[in-house]
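Exam revision sheet. Question 4 asks you to relate a sequence to its structure. Input first:
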Amino acid sequence: MAIRLIFESGAIYCIAVIFLLITSLVNGAAKITSAAETSHVIGLGFVQPLLNIIPTFTLVYVGRIAADTPEDRNFSASSTRIPRRLVGRQTFGPAEVMKIGPHGEEKESGEVATLSSLRSSLPAWARDRRLSRHLTSGVLPLLLLCTLLSYLLTPSPALYDPRRSAQHTPPPQPPAGRITTSIVVPTFHERANLAPLVQATYSSLPPAIAERTEIVFVDDDSQDGTEEEVERLREEGYERVELLTRPREGGERGLSSAVLRGFERARGARLVVMDADLQHPPSAIPALLAALGPEGDDDDEGAAPMALGTRYGRGVSMDANWPLYRRVISWGARILARPLTTASDPMTGFFAVRKDAFLAARPLSPQGFKIALELLLAIPAASRPPEVPYSFGVRTAGSSKLGAKVILKYVLQLLWLYRRRLGVFWHLVVGAGLAGAVWTGREVREKGWRAVWRRFRGRSTGKGPLLPVARRRGRLE
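Answer key, structure tokens:
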């Protein structure tokens, strides 16, 4: 039995390991050089296949041992020697074995019960002797195959290393003074909102902070006159308003990648992110900066690496004109992200982060639309950030960018984050789900829904009490 186990399991898993290692080596040669790359990289690294194999190998080993039932290896109650094949299987010691039969009746004198004779007290699906055969000949190989498919088919986005931001040289500091705070605002066809946003932002900041604050608009090559509007604002005296335009030919689009490009361009040590549609009130920026802590490095006393604006909590409100379907989508997005973070509003687009903390963060995915959630997971010290309540308004001009494509990208982003958080267990969970679905489908096809449901509920066709005989101090009753 042991030799057969070694050869069968060894052959299966050696083939899987070789195949996975070849896949990892081939894909490991791909170098991720910039956030603009959209190619998908398969696999989690060179060592990951080995980690995928160990838990599944353990399951196969346990399943094989469980299939070898010792139903015909009973021994005398007076014997003090336990057969080697029953070590680890025996429910009671030699003087404590219950005298029961396969259906609860008492056995003749001298006969004792092993683990297999207690099967009558188990549910119907657990008493089925085919269960162990299913585990070894059906489910577990299927689990291996599904885990392998999950490993190969789950895409990994091209990652952006925040340390690359330090390689970009921001524009020179203005002669009026040093920039300490940068407000990054992604835009696309938001020309009508630019002037009100700039005016409200500088009006809400204290003069000492306003003169050292810049606003960086990151635009996806809008054709509505955004560039001309920024030039007009600069001519009116807002010299610390910058525009970074990403051409269509570059292929880089999306909210998260726009924020990352804005961080590269920013000159301040404190970075604030907000939308251009005025739904994030500029009047809440001072409170957000105060929650972030004083100007300076992360080592300063009272400094936080990240601070979030939240739409939920005491003293906040949402505009009554905000559509119901948007409220439902927002609620569902929060529920899906709840296992990843304790923040009350991880889907917020209104937050502040220290540039030093951003540069020290783990690689990020620039493909999603909720960069704040990724930063919460990528910055270790930001697991419990301070939160600033604010009243969420409605759009005054332009149109919303929320659509089916945005929702789909958010779901894909969540899948990537869960995969990154769970590591190897992600593939085991997905593989187990696929294997369970295939196995259940096969059972339903062969026996029908009713039979599978009865088996799942544990309805027994045999009769007899669950635990018919008691034991007393080693004497059989």
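Marking note for examiners. The CA atoms of residues 191 and 225 lie 6 Å apart.
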